[in-house]
């Protein structure tokens, strides 16, 4: 069956297609959510910092022990470096992450009364916290809409033709102009889930994709449904960037 061309798509058509993709992914991933385990903003902030260059699965194996020992910002501020490094070592880059967590605790105590701030402009001033991390925490711990541009989100946004930019801030802005603000946090979860499960970086499972007809990049991976279905990882134990 001939594929629709998106080459001459108008701005209005682009917005409509982007919102339809979001709606259809919502139906396909009704349980999409943050895959880091947490019970409060501090735990999510710490888990997100630890998730850099590793998987959510790995972080979730470490955080039960970590959160049992370090419950407050003050606990991190006064942490013994060797003990903290030992607990988080398996997440990789543990020395740098330990430095970030200790400094994070100190900054939270000195500037925010030991509490995680709920404003983007404040959060990005904290050690180890950029816009991506801040938006994860704001969206999932505080209910403040935010777009989380990780490697999956950026890749899919470009494949969908929503942006051409490699700059995460520009991607965030351009995608944000297409999708209702109230949907930003859930859109982030849906694209990240889709990127981890079907729209992989090397061999996307195009023939098993629920939004194939809406995607300008259809054909980057196998289009045969049987072949593509073998690439699907609905519960990925190992993340793929």
Structure, described:
The chain is mainly alpha-helical and 241 residues long. It folds into 2 domains: 11-30 and 150-229, Endonuclease Iii, domain 2, CATH 1.10.1670.10; 41-141, Hypothetical protein, domain 2 (Endonuclease III, domain 1, Orthogonal Bundle). Helices cover 52% and strands 0% of the residues. The chain contains 12 helices and no strands. It has helices spanning 11-28, 41-50, 56-69, 73-77, 81-88, 94-112, 120-123, 131-141, 151-159, 168-176, 184-197, 225-229. Helix 2 runs antiparallel to helix 8, helix 5 (81-88) packs across helix 6 (94-112) and helix 9 crosses helix 11 (184-197). The longest helix has 19 residues, at 94-112. The chain is globular, with a radius of gyration of 19 Å. The mean pLDDT is 94.
Q: How are the SSEs placed, and which strands pair?
A:
Blueprint: H1 11-28, H2 41-50, H3 56-69, H4 73-77, H5 81-88, H6 94-112, H7 120-123, H8 131-141, H9 151-159, H10 168-176, H11 184-197, H12 225-229
Helix pairs in contact: 2-8, 5-6, 9-11
**How many DSSP H or I helices?**
12
Radius of gyration: 19 Å
Distance from N terminus to C terminus (CA atoms, Å) equals 31 Å
CATH superfamily of the largest domain: Hypothetical protein, domain 2
Q: Which spans of ≥5 residues are poorly predicted at pLDDT below 50? A: none
Shape: globular
Percent range for helical residues?
40-55%
Classify the secondary structure makeup into a structural class.
Answer: mainly alpha
CATH architecture descriptor name of the largest domain = Orthogonal Bundle
Question: What is the name of the CATH class of the largest domain?
Answer: Mainly Alpha
The overall strand count is 0
Largest sheet: none
- Looking at the structure, the CATH topology of the largest domain is Endonuclease III, domain 1
- Domain tally: 2
Q: Helix and strand string, N-terminal first?
A: HHHHHHHHHHHH
Strand residue percentage: under 5%
């Amino acid at each position: 069956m001939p594929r629709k061309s998106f080459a001459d798509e108008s701005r209005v058509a682009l917005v409509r297609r982007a919102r339809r993709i979001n709606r259809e992914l919502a139906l396909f991933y009704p349980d999409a959510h943050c895959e880091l385990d947490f019970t409060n903003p501090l735990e999510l902030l710490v888990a997100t910092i630890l998730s850099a260059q590793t998987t959510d699965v790995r972080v979730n194996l470490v955080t039960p022990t970590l959160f049992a020992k370090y419950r407050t910002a003050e606990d991190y501020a006064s942490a013994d470096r060797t003990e903290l490094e030992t607990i988080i070592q398996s997440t990789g880059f543990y020395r740098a992450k330990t430095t970030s967590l200790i400094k994070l605790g100190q900054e939270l105590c000195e500037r925010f009364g030991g509490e995680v701030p709920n404003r983007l402009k404040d959060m990005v001033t904290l050690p180890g916290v950029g816009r991506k991390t801040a938006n994860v925490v704001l969206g999932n711990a505080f209910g403040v809409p935010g777009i989380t541009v990780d490697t999956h989100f950026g890749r899919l946004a470009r494949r969908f033709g929503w942006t051409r930019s490699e700059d995460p801030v520009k991607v965030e802005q351009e995608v944000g102009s297409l999708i209702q603000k109230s949907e930003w946090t859930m859109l982030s979860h849906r694209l990240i889930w889709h990127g981890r499960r079907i729209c992989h970086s090397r061999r996307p499972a195009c023939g098993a994709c629920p939004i194939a007809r809406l995607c300008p990049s259809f054909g980057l991976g196998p289009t045969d449904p049987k072949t593509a279905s073998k690439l699907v990882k609905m519960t990925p134990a190992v993340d793929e960037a």
